[in-house]
Design brief:
The structure is a homodimer of 355-residue chains. The first copy, chain A, is 3% helix and 51% strand. Chain A is mainly beta. At the A-B interface, strand 13, strand 14, strand 17 and strand 18 of A face strand 13, strand 14, strand 17 and strand 18 of B.
């Protein structure tokens, strides 16, 4: 058993039933993949809420954000001559690809790290031509009292990475697209290293290459360069088909600890760990051979997209790492880890207090 | 007839037969897609030379650059259980993709813009993990006496964009990867606009999006941000399947003139024109409805990859634009255009001297 997660007893901690839809007549079909942060003595989760119009017999539907920033639903006749279903979330009609649901970001707050109260209104909706199919999977970091939000912007132009900042969670500044398509899963390091910011991200391969973890360097968080690939998929293993960064890296005395996700040929999503050199995060010091968490509970194996545990947000206090994660692309759950246990048991790092 | 190119009478101006291979026993299978620049009263072309090992019955072969920066040839048995031929240049073996040839960059010089002498040795070879499958299709710009070279770096990590600079064409500085995969066709603007550098580039779509022309902004040429998509494919037209930037944009009084390439569903490559706002190059002022150049001559329709005209290098003198281009992915050719004719006839811009 390589799964060393101590799951919350009250999982899932947020379910679609806990959320009111933001669009009249739509259903919340998933609440997933939260960014996590501390603010005003609370834990904030920036959750992804996926909504879809009710099923309409004989049609497939695509909710899109219009130029006036309202959601309208495109309806296409269910005609196999023009329609190709690509997966549960995607279809292509007459050669153009659409999503069957649209996601926005919403806040949930907790005073005990376990019980969350979800706000009634969306915090951030897709805005503009790169977000007409919604915004998804936001990482949050806090540098010098400013929160930086990296998220997946989805539109007919592709999926790419946007950056937004806020000091107070009321006023927001948009920094534009920081990584061009196809890119997602961007996790900025929570502090500078020798005058540079760093970010992990996940471009996708076309014909050649794959879904690998890359890193980049920046002087100002807005302009990025020095792209390098730090980890690739491993044939025959749990992370053989695709990998991507999870939450922002955690600074430990042994290196930057990054919880990442990996998929196998059955599209099963597990979590693993990477350790990057403290001074030179281009260098991978250790990588877990086995997952540190696998989908095993019913809420992780059954749901909108079963067999998925996926994280992009965590908080920590001393040795205790609290990972918030999406389960089956439908629920938000929580689990605790011992950072030392990840280092010693999963990453085989000889820590000084190693028993 | 929308093709307004005045082709050189002596096309092709460089053929594979004119080039000695750089690797013992290899054949030069194509010489194509040159960057173009002026230096010491000559026209320099930075040509792409594609080389392959001779056919070996019963095997497919992939030349790759090893860690010691020498080319070695991987040999795979021609076994349909493991082998998938993807196109004339690509195959996949046991799930991994390889190229059947490897490209380097070599210089050719001319005093009359028409007759070129090709150097005997490569100028730049693939170097390091992002270039193990070679380097291709280099654009050259000249800013403040420094030449900047943007090229496609190809490896098992994917294809992405590298930047190299030189003052003298003897000493080179490597700036690393400036756009992550999958990206190519990067054309930097030849001067700053209001304190920022700009570049056109071509990320590829995965599942969603497509092969569209994007732009980015930089403060230092090394770090890039503010990504925007400025042009997409046009259904039913000659550029319905993919588009990409050509040579670096040309400053005219009516805007930045960009010669770009477009492909249709038959993989036929033509050239078209875009005009971008002088002060705000995110804004497209005009786009040619029809190609300004189409593959029509035998050297453009027949060859390694027929029906291709593709440019990434040009020079100009007053109204005369000399475009160097790859034909059929096998030859280098030249053609002259009148800039005013492109503006008035192809882009329908009302120029002041319009007859």
């Amino acid at each position: 058993m390589t799964d060393i997660a101590k799951r919350f007893a009250n999982n899932p901690i947020i379910s679609p039933n806990d959320i009111n839809p933001s669009i009249d007549g739509f259903d919340v079909i998933g609440v997933l993949n939260p960014g996590a942060f501390r603010f005003n003595n609370q834990i904030g989760l920036l959750i992804r809420v996926a909504e879809a119009p009710p099923v309409l017999d004989g049609f497939v539907q695509a909710p899109v954000i219009d130029r006036d920033n309202t959601v309208k639903t495109l309806k296409f006749p269910d005609d196999p001559q023009f329609l190709t279903l690509k997966e549960s979330r995607l279809f292509s009609y007459n050669g153009k690809t659409y999503l069957t649901s649209i996601s926005h970001l919403r806040l949930a707050w907790s005073e005990d790290e376990i019980h969350f109260k979800v706000e009634k209104e969306p915090l951030l909706m897709g805005n503009g031509q790169y977000e007409s199919f919604g915004i998804e999977d936001c990482r949050v970091i806090n540098i010098d009292d400013i929160f930086y939000l990296t998220y997946t912007a989805v539109s007919e132009k592709g999926f790419c990475v946007g950056l937004i900042s806020t000091k107070d969670w009321y006023n927001f500044e948009r920094w534009g697209i920081i990584f061009p398509p196809p890119n997602k899963n961007t996790a900025i390091f929570p502090c500078k290293i020798d005058d540079y910011y760093y970010a992990l991200h996940r471009p996708s391969g076309v014909v050649i290459g794959g879904n690998y973890i890359w890193i980049a360097k920046s002087i100002d968080l807005k302009h990025w360069g020095n792209y390098e690939c730090i980890a690739v998929t491993r044939p025959g293993k749990w992370d053989s088909c695709g990998i991507g960064p999870g939450a922002p890296p955690i600074k430990t005395e042994y290196g930057w600890l990054e919880i990442y996700h990996g998929t196998d040929k059955n599209n099963r999503y597990c979590l693993g760990a990477l350790l990057l050199d403290l001074k030179n995060p281009f260098k991978v010091v250790a990588r877990s051979e086995e997952p540190i968490m696998e989908p095993t509970m019913s809420y992780e194996t059954e749901g909108f997209f079963g067999n998925v545990v996926f994280t992009n947000g965590c908080v920590y206090d001393g040795d205790i790492l609290t990972v918030y994660y999406g389960a089956s692309d439908e629920y938000i759950c929580g689990a605790k880890f011992s950072i030392k246990e990840i280092l010693t048991e999963s990453l085989k790092v000889p820590t000084t207090n190693h028993r």
